[in-house]
Amino acid sequence: MTEKSTESTTRQLKIEQLLPATAVGIENTKENLPQTMSEHRKIFPWFARRPTAATRLAILASLLPADTTNNDLLKLMGIGPREYFEGNIEDYVISREASLDDRDGSIEDHFGYDYLHKQTPESDDLESFHERISNIWDDELPTVLDPTAGGGTIPLEAARYGLPTISNELNPVAWLINKVLLEYTSEIGPLESELQYWLDEIHKTASDNLSEYFPEWNGIKPDHYFRAYSITCTSCGRRFPLTNRWWFNKQKGMAIKPNYSDDGFEFDCVNVEKADDDDFNPAEGTVDEANAECPYCSVVTEREELSEKFSAGEFQYEVCGVRYEKEIDGTRYHAPRDEDIEAVKKAKQTVESDLNLSTFLAHDRYIGRADRAEPYGITQWRDMFSPRQLLSHAKLLEAYEEISSKVASQYNEEKSEAIQVLLSFVATKLVNRNTRLQPIKITRGTASDLLGNNNYSFNWHFAENNLLVGTFSYLSEADNVLGSYETVCNWLSKADSRDITVLQGDGASLEIPDEEVEAVVMDPPYGDNIMYAEMADVLYVLLREYLSDTFAKQFASPETDKQSEAIENPEIQTPSEGESRMDAARQHYESKMSDIFSESHRVLRPGGVITVHFTDKDTYAWDSLTMSLIEAGFTITATHTLTSEVPQRIGMQEKASADSTLLLTCRKPTDIPEHRTPTLWDDIKYRTRDAARNKANELLDSELNVTKTDVIIGAFGPTLQVFTEEHPVVDKHDNPVRPRQALEEARTAVTEVLIERELGESLDEVDNVTKWYLLSWLVYEREAIPYDEARQLGLGVGIDIDEIKRDTKLWSKSKDTLMLKGYQYRVRDIDALEAGEKRRKRAYPVDPRHESFECDIDTVHAVLNIIASKGSDFAWNWINNRNLQDSPSFKRTIVSLLELLPEDHSDYDYLVNLASGETGSLLNIRASQNVNKSQSSETERRTIYDYE
Hints:
Radius of gyration: 31 Å
Structural class: alpha+beta
Number of helices: 31
Shape: globular
Distance between the termini: 52 Å
């Protein structure tokens, strides 16, 4: 290995300077729809791939010198007008985005350039780029490594720029995606004619074997089915269907209508708008919150009994409706015919009578954190499918096995392998749209995405595809795989990409020599965000049926390796005495990430750079990630927030918005001291707060359309930079201080900035419980907020929200979401009290008859009940009798709520009444300053939730 200089690699890089974050954020948003995303993502399902713009920025800025202008960087990325342009490109992109809704023509025409993923740099631009970066990396092209490559976006973009590229991935499914995208495309090249021939052969054989199970009607083939279940009512003994809704295609007005009689039930497919039945509501099925009501006797079978029935196999499959390729009698949606019901029965008999089919995928599933299906008897992989679905997948596999030996005999080993892998991709992709676990997508009348919610959830009805025709069929997925593969071949041929290595294994143990890599760019797993191995198992088990002989090592085990992956998975951890499973899982994650970062540190040359994408908002995840980087020996040198939108565009609130991403950049020091003297936390505590405040003000003053949570995340970066530069950090008792204490300081500092800017004055006079309630509305601007973030916000003002929950009833919880409550949920109605109605005291913690209250929010909610029930005059006396007109905290709470609550909140109109008229005069509140929100719509706060 050539000895490499450390002097050159300590020079400042572009990523350590101001980046064109707004323009890149706009590009990220442009690529967040299925029809605009990069072609490589269509080759096979995977999770959480970064947009092209964010990926290119991270790679290129991590390699280019610091004196690279933003215009030069954007041009190299592919951002900017096609025609010669001397102005500021970022300003140009912002102006194009601001006028997007007034455009004529396509988005690409409006911006004056193609989507980034369609652009591979021309040879002259690549040559200039290579020369520029070689000058600061010892006259050679720097190598880019992604040790947790996932779906392959980062290494693919590095390869498109002609850079030496190393991709590593633990999971065999993701590794295979990388192998196809990077290795086959660059070494074997286009395979269109060969693949098309074998795809047609497989489809012909499968069609011959499956057509009888999908009967045509008037020569027209069915492509989708509405399937549900039925059970026998334990009360009346009649069988009835189960579903939580009857919509087939809501956009078309088509629904399934059950008809019940003494002889049983049958289904019609009806156009709801034309149907003459006011009692039928397709949004209401027989199941509500996992409890099923019998339509004959109205007795409810509760969730527990339902799951017991399904676990015992005491249910039947129903065909409720059929969608056809083309219209029959003016519509594609029809009720099932006798032939459809007989075909389902025949498929079931075939599966049960054929020895091979009866054992196909008959091995136990790993039941983990992401599983919601096991309680309903889905314990083996074959249970994921109805009999006809299982038969369809098995027959495609049989058709593949018939031709695989022919493929092997006609091509060399490398080409044969590539063809067989791509053929297996086509068939395995179909699993994502053809199991019992995805419902009908009611806007299309087709199957939803199995992997879209990152869990395995049982559904009361499901979509079944005819894999031979139509949407999500073998032919449609063949087009996607083939098209994606050929496109990537073209990309890499333009870049003349040859120096590419694809590794499979643990990122903590790389087959790479010491100090061989100049840059690590990675998008690591985030805590417990996605259970990658668990979710990939459904793809892995079928790929294994196709490829276990070809890749004996990678597909040796029945399921994927969950012990070695870097996630927080409490299901597989054995905690120490006194330790919770969650604590053990977090420790495992931190240890694994530390090992991966340490391995990256080993293979990086001194002065090398590591840039990490990070989007998780959980402080514990940030704490673990930062601690892992520190323990690996890195120093944070820069952070950048890439947001998703720019403000003040017409119609912005109706648009989708991508999550913000933080780029966290670190260097491997060229001179690592053997021992560093610990820094006292009190000595740097206020520096971390100042860093957070400065970053918050910078973001709020920018053109970025940042949410309040984005501002908090953005402030984490410079805060962590201060912390890592001074590590190790200890408190006055010499105990280690972890990064989360710095992050808590950052959160507190940012909320102070938000209070100053949004409310005009502090909340110091308000009690801590009320302050938390107000800050929750200030930061999140809606009643439903992430529980973990709300809890961290509470700790920042000195309260544990779990401890106040029961006594205050200020919030409730649904899964991981916290719901803020208004006065009606908390205050016992004054009229009901005077009427002597009895209620448990704890159900309504606030009694408006009291003379004083524990918290300011209690006082305000009490008076809202008074003004709602008794009117303004009574409220005036109520306030005057308690001398609340002299209470600054009471008035501050009212004014703040008027500023923060949305106009459609149930409390808002009563607050306006309170701040108006005689009560407003008594309190000396100038209502006009607080209630005219509609007059300032141009400056309304927008949040990420506005774009859902």
